[in-house]
C-alpha cells in the first residue's frame, strides 16, 4: 500500500554547517610518512658512515698536501717590539729581517698571510665602529654613526675613514726576498685581487670627484695612520682610497681572536713561475703594528691552497670520526636487533 | 482478565553506541552510566550497549555494602588488586540505600568519616570495570562527578543530552552535549557538542589523541630549536670577551618569528602519527596520553640536553673548521662565520616530523630561504643592497663552497640523523628489558550465568509492576521512611522515597571513574529502554 501520509524530498538538504570534504579540512592530506624500519635505519647509518669516511679521507689527504710555513716575528723582532711600545716613537722606522729555508719547492699558487693572535676583532663595540655609508663614498654626517670616538677631531675635521676598525688597520709592510746563489731577488707579489668582488666593487666606493685627493678634501686621516687614505697606494688608482685591498681585507673583521688575513700573493713570473723554489728566503718587515701591550703576537704565513681550504685538518678528522661513529652505531644497532629479535617458535603438530 | 491492549514507549539506542563503548573501554577509559531509570532498566541498557557482559560479576546492593564495609574498615589500605575484585565486576548501586546503612552503622558522623566513606566508595567503584548508577537525580549526577574529581586524579568527561545532565556536564572537566530531540539545553552548556553519541569515539580517539600528540611535539620542537639556535650566542661569548653576538639583533629577534616559526607551526597543526582509521582500530594508543608519556619532566630534560648538544656541535665544529683558515680570498671572517653558525642552527628546524605533507616541505624550505635572503639583516646594509641589486645584503662570496658547507654536513650528521634512529633503538631495548614473563594461558569459563540468558534492550519488568497501584488509586508519593538517622554525607539524601515515580526521570547519564589520568566518560544511553506499562483492567 502506498504511503501517502508523508513525503520526504528525494534529495536531502545538505546541512549548512557541515565542513567541506576536502583533503585539507578533513586532515587527509597526502603525506610522506617515513617509517623507521630496521632496514632503512641500518642503511642510513652505513651509507652515511661510508660517505663521511670517504669525504674525511679526501679532506685529510688534501690538508696534508698543503705546504705551510708560519713564522712568529713579533718574537724575532724584539727590539722593534720594544720600540713600538712607546707611542711617541711613531715616526721612527724600524726594520726587521726574518730568515727561513725551504727544503723543497712549493709548487702552485703561494699565498702570504699575516696572522694576529689575541687581537679581538670580534668585540662588539669594535665590530660596530664603522660607517658603511661613508665607505660607500657618500657625504654623510659621521657623527650619527657608531664611529665614536674615532669620528671627528677636536677642530671638527671628520676622519676618513672613521671608526675603530679603520683606525687600527694593520700597517706592517712585509717583503719577501730570495737568496739565490749570491744575489738577492725580491719575490714579485700581487697586492690586488685579495678581497671579495662584492666588497671591492659594491660595498666600498671612493667619493666621486675628478681627483682623489680633492675628493677627500676636508677630511683627515685617522689618528693611528701615517698616511691619508688617498695615499694608500699611489701606483694603482684602483687600489687607492677606500677600495684599497689591504684596507678592505682588514675591514672584513674576523670572528676569532687568532686570525690571519690575506696579504699578498706570489706572482708567478720569472723564477717563480712554478711557485717558490727551494732555498733561503728572507722576510723584510717594516714593523709598525704594536702588539705587546695586549700580549698579542704577529705571524707571517706562506701557504698553498687546495679545494678544501688550508692545512687545517680538523674538518677531515671530524668527518672521519663521524663516519666511524656512524658505522659503529650501525653495528651496534645490528647487534641489538639480532639479539632481541623474537625467535620464531615452531609449533609441532601432534 | 481480558487483555485489551498494550502500550509501549520506545526510546531506541542510538546507532553505534555499543561499538563506541567497546572502543572506549579498550582505550582504558572507564565508563559509568548514571541514569534515572530503575535498576532493571539500567541493567538491560548496560547489556544492550555491551557495557556489561555475561561473564562479569555483578555486585548488587548487599554485596557492595559488604565490600564497602570491608574496605571502609581499612581506610588507608586499599589495593586495587583485592582478590574479590580480581575478575571484572560490575557494580550497581542504588542511590541512597547503602549510605544510609553505613551511616546508621553506629559510627559517629563526622567530616572525616564522610571523607573516608567517600574514598572507600570511589576506590571500590574505580576497581570495577563498569559502574551503573540508577535512580540518580541531576544533583546527584553532579555530585558523583565531583566525588571522582576530588578523590581520583582523573580527567572526567560528562556527556548527556537532556536538561537533567546540565549539572553534570558543567561539573566535569570536559562536558559534551548531544544535540537531539530533547532540546539544546545540554548543548548550550557544554564544551563540545555532538550530534550523535557515536561521534564520541572520533572526538576522543582520533582528534583528542592527535591534538595531544601535536601539542607535545610542538612544545618539544619549540624548545629544541630555541636551545639549539640561540645557545650558540652563549658559546660565542666565551670567545669574544663576553661582548659580541654571533649575529646582530635582527637575527635574534626574527629567529623565533620568521626563520623557525613555520615548520614548528606546521608540526603543531598537521602532525599525525597514525591515520584516523588506525586510531579507531587501536584504541590502546589512547593510553599514551593518559600516562603523560609525551611531555613530562624527563622528556623536557632530554630535549634540553639535545638542544644544548646541538648548539655545541653547531658552534664548535664551525669554529674549529674556520680557525686558521686559508683560502684564495678572505675567509674565517665574522660574517661568514656567523652565517654558517646561524645556518646550522636553522637546520634544527628539520625536526622529527613524521607526517611530511606538502605544507611541511614548503614551510621548511621557505624558512631556509627567508634566512638566506636575509631580509632585514641590517637596515643600512639592506638599503644598500636595494640600491645595488647585485648583492644579497651580505655581500657574500659564493656560499656553497666546500669549507662553508662541510661543517654543516658534519653537524647534520652528528645532531640530526642519529636522534630518531637512536631513540627508536633505545625504545626497543627498553621495551625488551621490561618484558613481563609470558603469562600463562587462562581458561575462562563461558558458562552463562544467571537465569537471564536472553538480553534485550527492552526492559520488561519482571516484577509485579504497578498495576496494583493504579487500580487501587493510591498516591504515588512516598511517605518518609521511618527510623532514618540524619546523615552528613552529601550523598545521603534525607528522606529519599523508597519508590520513585512511574516514569524514569529523564535520560540516564553515565559517569566514569578512572585511574589517574584516564578520562572518564559519561554517556547517556539515549537508549531509553522501553518502559512498558501493561494496562490491565481487572475484571
TrEMBL record, chain A:
Gene behind the chain: LOC116992351
InterPro entries: CDC50/LEM3_fam (IPR005045)
Chain positions covered by the region annotation Disordered: 1-21
GO cellular component terms attached to this protein's record: endoplasmic reticulum; Golgi apparatus; plasma membrane
PANTHER family: CELL CYCLE CONTROL PROTEIN 50, CELL CYCLE CONTROL PROTEIN 50C
UniProt entry keywords in alphabetical sequence: Glycoprotein, Membrane, Transmembrane, Transmembrane helix
Family per similarity comment: Belongs to the CDC50/LEM3 family.
Membrane spanning stretches: 36-63, 317-340
Localization annotation: Membrane
Source superkingdom: Eukaryota
GO biological process: phospholipid translocation
Main location: membrane
Record's protein name: Cell cycle control protein
UniProtKB/TrEMBL annotation, chain B:
GO cellular component: plasma membrane; trans-Golgi network
Superkingdom assignment: Eukaryota
Coiled-coil boundaries: none
Catalysed reaction equations from the record: ATP + H2O + phospholipidSide 1 = ADP + phosphate + phospholipidSide 2
TM stretches of this protein: 218-238, 250-270, 299-322, 342-371
UniProt GO MF annotations: ATP binding; ATP hydrolysis activity; ATPase-coupled intramembrane lipid transporter activity; metal ion binding
InterPro entries: ATPase_P-typ_TM_dom_sf (IPR023298), HAD-like_sf (IPR036412), HAD_sf (IPR023214), P_typ_ATPase (IPR001757), P_typ_ATPase_c (IPR032630)
Enzyme class, UniProt record, top EC level: translocase
Domain P-type ATPase C-terminal: 187-371
Enzyme Commission number(s) from the entry: 7.6.2.1
Pfam families cross-referenced by the UniProt entry: PhoLip_ATPase_C
UniProt-recorded name of the protein: P-type phospholipid transporter
Species for this entry: Catharus ustulatus (Russet-backed thrush)
Amino acid at each position: 500500500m502506498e504511503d501517502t501520509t508523508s513525503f520526504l524530498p528525494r534529495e536531502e538538504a545538505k546541512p549548512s554547517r557541515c565542513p567541506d570534504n576536502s583533503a585539507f579540512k578533513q586532515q587527509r592530506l597526502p603525506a610522506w610518512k617515513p617509517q623507521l624500519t630496521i632496514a632503512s635505519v641500518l642503511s642510513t647509518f652505513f651509507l652515511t658512515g661510508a660517505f663521511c669516511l670517504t669525504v674525511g679521507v679526501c679532506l685529510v689527504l688534501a690538508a696534508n698536501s698543503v705546504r705551510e710555513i708560519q713564522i712568529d716575528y713579533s718574537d724575532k723582532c724584539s727590539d722593534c717590539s720594544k720600540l713600538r711600545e712607546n707611542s711617541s716613537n711613531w715616526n721612527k722606522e724600524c726594520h726587521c729581517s726574518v730568515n727561513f729555508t725551504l727544503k723543497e719547492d712549493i709548487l702552485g699558487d703561494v699565498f702570504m698571510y699575516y696572522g694576529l693572535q689575541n687581537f679581538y676583532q670580534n668585540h662588539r663595540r669594535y665590530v660596530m665602529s664603522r660607517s658603511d655609508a661613508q665607505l660607500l663614498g657618500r657625504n654623510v654626517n659621521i657623527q650619527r654613526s657608531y664611529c665614536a670616538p674615532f669620528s671627528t677631531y677636536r677642530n671638527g675635521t671628520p676622519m676618513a675613514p672613521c671608526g675603530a676598525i679603520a683606525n687600527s688597520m694593520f700597517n706592517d709592510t712585509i717583503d719577501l726576498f730570495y737568496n739565490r746563489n749570491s744575489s738577492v731577488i725580491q719575490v714579485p707579489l700581487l697586492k690586488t685581487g685579495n678581497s671579495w668582488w662584492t666588497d671591492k666593487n659594491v660595498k666600498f666606493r671612493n667619493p666621486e670627484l675628478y681627483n682623489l685627493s680633492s675628493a677627500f678634501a676636508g677630511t683627515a686621516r685617522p689618528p693611528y695612520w701615517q698616511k691619508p687614505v688617498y695615499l694608500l697606494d699611489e701606483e694603482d688608482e684602483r687600489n687607492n682610497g677606500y677600495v684599497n685591498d689591504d684596507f678592505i681585507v682588514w675591514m672584513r673583521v674576523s670572528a676569532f681572536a687568532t686570525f690571519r688575513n690575506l696579504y699578498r700573493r706570489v706572482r708567478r713570473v720569472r723564477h717563480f713561475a712554478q711557485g717558490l723554489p727551494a732555498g733561503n728566503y728572507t722576510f723584510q718587515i717594516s714593523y709598525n703594528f704594536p702588539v705587546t701591550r695586549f700580549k698579542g703576537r704577529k705571524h707571517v704565513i706562506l701557504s698553498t691552497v687546495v679545494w678544501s681550504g688550508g692545512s687545517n685538518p680538523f674538518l677531515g678528522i671530524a668527518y672521519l670520526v663521524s663516519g666511524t661513529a656512524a658505522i659503529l652505531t650501525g653495528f651496534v644497532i645490528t647487534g641489538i636487533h639480532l639479539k632481541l629479535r623474537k625467535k620464531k617458535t615452531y609449533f609441532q603438530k601432534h | 482478565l481480558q487483555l485489551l491492549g498494550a502500550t509501549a514507549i520506545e526510546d531506541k539506542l542510538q546507532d553505534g553506541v555499543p561499538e563506541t563503548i567497546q572502543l572506549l573501554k579498550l582505550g582504558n577509559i572507564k565508563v559509568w552510566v548514571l541514569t534515572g531509570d530503575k535498576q532493571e532498566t539500567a541493567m538491560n541498557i548496560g547489556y544492550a550497549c555491551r557495557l556489561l557482559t555475561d561473564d562479569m560479576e555483578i555486585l548488587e546492593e548487599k554485596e557492595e555494602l559488604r565490600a564497602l564495609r570491608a574496605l571502609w574498615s581499612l581506610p588507608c589500605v586499599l589495593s586495587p588488586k583485592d582478590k574479590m575484585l580480581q575478575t571484572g565486576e560490575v557494580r550497581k548501586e542504588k542511590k541512597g540505600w547503602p549510605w544510609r546503612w553505613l551511616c546508621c552503622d553506629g559510627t559517629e558522623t563526622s567530616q572525616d568519616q564522610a571523607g573516608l566513606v567517600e574514598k572507600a566508595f570511589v576506590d571500590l567503584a574505580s576497581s570495577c570495570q563498569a559502574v551503573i548508577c540508577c535512580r540518580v537525580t541531576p544533583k546527584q549526577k553532579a555530585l558523583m562527578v565531583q566525588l571522582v574529581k576530588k578523590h581520583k586524579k582523573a580527567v572526567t568527561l560528562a556527556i548527556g543530552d537532556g536538561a537533567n545532565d546540565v549539572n553534570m556536564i558543567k561539573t566535569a572537566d570536559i562536558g559534551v552535549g548531544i544535540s537531539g530531540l530533547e532540546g539544546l539545553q545540554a548543548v548550550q552548556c557544554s564544551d563540545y557538542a555532538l550530534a550523535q553519541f557515536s561521534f564520541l569515539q572520533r572526538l576522543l580517539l582520533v582528534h583528542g589523541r592527535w591534538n595531544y600528540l601535536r601539542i607535545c611535539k610542538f612544545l618539544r620542537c619549540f624548545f629544541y630549536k630555541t636551545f639549539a639556535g640561540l645557545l650558540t650566542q652563549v658559546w660565542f661569548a666565551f670567545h669574544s670577551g663576553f661582548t659580541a653576538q654571533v649575529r646582530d639583533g635582527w637575527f635574534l629577534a626574527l629567529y623565533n618569528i620568521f626563520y623557525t616559526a613555520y615548520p614548528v607551526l606546521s608540526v603543531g597543526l598537521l602532525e599525525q602519527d597514525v591515520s584516523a582509521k588506525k586510531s579507531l582500530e587501536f584504541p590502546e594508543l589512547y593510553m599514551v596520553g593518559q600516562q603523560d608519556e609525551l611531555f613530562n619532566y624527563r622528556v623536557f630534560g632530554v630535549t634540553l640536553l639535545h638542544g644544548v648538544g646541538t648548539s655545541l656541535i653547531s658552534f664548535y665544529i664551525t669554529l674549529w673548521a674556520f680557525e686558521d683558515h686559508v683560502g684564495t680570498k678572505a675567509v674565517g671572517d665574522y660574517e661568514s662565520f656567523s652565517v654558517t653558525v646561524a645556518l646550522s642552527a636553522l637546520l634544527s628546524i628539520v625536526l622529527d616530523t613524521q607526517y611530511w605533507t606538502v605544507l611541511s616541505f614548503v614551510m621548511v624550505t621557505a624558512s631556509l630561504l627567508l634566512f638566506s635572503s636575509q631580509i632585514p639583516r641590517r637596515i643600512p646594509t639592506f638599503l644598500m643592497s636595494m640600491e645595488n641589486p647585485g648583492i644579497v645584503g651580505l655581500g657574500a662570496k659564493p656560499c656553497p663552497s666546500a669549507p662553508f658547507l662541510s661543517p654543516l654536513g658534519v653537524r647534520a650528521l652528528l645532531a640530526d640523523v642519529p636522534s630518531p634512529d637512536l631513540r627508536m633503538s633505545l625504545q626497543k631495548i627498553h621495551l625488551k628489558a621490561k618484558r613481563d614473563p609470558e603469562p600463562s594461558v587462562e581458561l575462562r569459563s563461558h558458562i552463562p550465568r544467571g537465569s537471564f540468558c536472553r538480553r534485550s534492550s527492552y526492559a520488561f519488568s519482571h516484577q509485579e509492576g504497578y498495576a496494583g497501584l493504579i487500580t487501587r488509586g493510591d498516591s504515588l508519593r512516598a511517605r518518609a521512611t521511618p527510623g532514618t538517622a540524619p546523615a552528613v554525607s552529601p550523598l545521603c539524601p534525607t528522606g529519599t522515597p523508597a519508590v520513585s515515580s512511574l516514569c524514569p526521570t529523564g535520560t540516564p547519564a553515565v559517569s566514569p571513574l578512572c585511574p589517574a589520568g584516564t578520562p572518564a566518560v559519561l554517556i547517556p544511553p539515549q537508549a531509553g529502554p522501553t518502559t512498558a506499562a501493561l494496562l490491565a483492567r481487572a475484571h
